[in-house]
């Protein structure tokens, strides 16, 4: 798309082209001087004198034309410079006005988080770490702005299904600056397999499985937007162009509304360490990890408490990820939460963020 400044440049280029053409013609044109030396003429000097006078007259007119052209070009150049300056100022003002609503909205959601304890920022991503203490539990939050969709990815412990590693190991392996545990898993014959539909690098790991038992998919699409929910056909999910994603339960918020939490997941366990990922309406991400010293119902946060907290913070969509001893939050080379197992649990998938 041609910018306003580029259109002005093209206009003045077309305006000044004839003047430069005239100057070039005057530079190249040198009228021949013809002297009449015929001795038979009565006045041998009159012809050359008349031609010289005529030539001088033409040169005088040419100088006047050239002077006028130079003055016109100078005036045009001055007007061009002034117009370009004015257009640049208008563009700068427009950019500032366009970004103003974004800044206002960001200030609004940040005010509900408090003051970040640490910030990582680059031309690809900005991550802010917050420490929360709502009262009944202790939690940590990451507010993440993806400036480049490739700044977020999902790791798979091995090239094929069945492996597991801690989120710290995944962070180190990818050279990431932050990471959280992702989807659920099932153990079989000493192997740890991702639960249900899992997408890695735009490819289905073990095919598509329709949502069942309240499970939901959550991941990122090719445009860098968080997507999630229940999907009953592959076509449904394919339309969102998932780049990667994993499965767990349940959906907490969707389209700025609370989603009813299935009774089973409200009670078993009642309280537990939690890992939740959501997004704001401007597509910034919010990760919340609640601490708990065990996963048996007496420590951590309830899903209702997490749902209410995210709703009041202005999150539009939110999905519960694997929790309990799997809950992991790595930031800037450190384990931020306190894993209920005493150590980080090995998991098959992790969501990672890179500078």
TrEMBL record:
Which keywords does the record carry? Glycosidase, Hydrolase, Membrane, Transmembrane, Transmembrane helix
Tell me if Nucleotide-binding is a UniProt keyword of this record. Answer: no
Q: Give a yes or no for keyword Hydrolase in this entry.
A: yes
For this protein, the parts annotated as crossing the membrane are 12-29
Read off the InterPro entries from this record.
NAGPA
Alphabetically, the GO molecular function entries are: hydrolase activity, acting on glycosyl bonds
Q: Which residues form the Phosphodiester glycosidase domain?
A: 174-353
Say which domain of life the source belongs to.
Bacteria
Instruction: Name the PANTHER family for this protein.
Output: N-ACETYLGLUCOSAMINE-1-PHOSPHODIESTER ALPHA-N-ACETYLGLUCOSAMINIDASE
Listed name of the protein: Phosphodiester glycosidase family protein
């Amino acid at each position: 798309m041609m910018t306003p400044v580029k259109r002005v440049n093209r206009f003045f280029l077309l305006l000044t082209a004839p003047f430069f053409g005239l100057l070039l013609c005057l530079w190249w044109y040198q009228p021949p001087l013809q002297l009449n030396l015929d001795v038979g003429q009565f006045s041998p000097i009159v012809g050359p004198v008349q031609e010289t006078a005529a030539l001088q007259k033409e040169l005088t007119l040419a100088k006047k034309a050239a002077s006028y052209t130079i003055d016109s070009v100078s005036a045009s150049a001055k007007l061009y410079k002034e117009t370009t300056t004015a257009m640049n100022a208008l563009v700068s003002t427009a950019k500032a006005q366009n970004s103003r609503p974004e800044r206002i909205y960001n200030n609004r959601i940040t005010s509900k988080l408090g003051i970040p304890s640490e910030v990582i920022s680059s031309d690809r991503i900005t991550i802010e770490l917050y420490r929360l203490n709502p009262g009944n539990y202790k939690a940590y939050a990451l507010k993440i702005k993806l400036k480049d969709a490739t700044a977020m990815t999902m790791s798979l412990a091995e090239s094929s299904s069945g492996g597991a590693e801690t989120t710290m190991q995944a962070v180190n392996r990818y050279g990431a600056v932050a990471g959280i545990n992702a989807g659920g898993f099932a153990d079989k014959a000493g192997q740890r397999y991702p639960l249900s539909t899992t997408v890695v690098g735009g490819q289905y790991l073990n095919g598509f499985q329709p949502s069942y038992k309240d499970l939901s998919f959550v991941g990122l699409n090719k445009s860098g937007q968080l997507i999630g929910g229940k999907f009953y056909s592959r076509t449904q999910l394919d339309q969102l162009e998932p780049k990667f994603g994993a499965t767990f339960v349940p959906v907490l918020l969707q389209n700025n509304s609370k989603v009813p939490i299935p009774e089973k997941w409200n009670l078993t366990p009642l309280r537990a360490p939690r890992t939740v990922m959501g997004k704001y309406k401007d597509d910034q991400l919010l990760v919340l990890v609640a601490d708990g010293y065990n996963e048996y119902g007496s420590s951590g946060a309830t899903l209702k408490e997490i749902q209410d907290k995210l709703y009041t913070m202005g999150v539009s969509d939110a999905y519960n990820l694997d929790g309990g001893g799997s809950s992991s939050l790595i930031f800037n080379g450190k384990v931020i939460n306190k894993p209920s197992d005493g150590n980080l649990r090995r998991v098959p998938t992790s969501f990672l963020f890179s500078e």
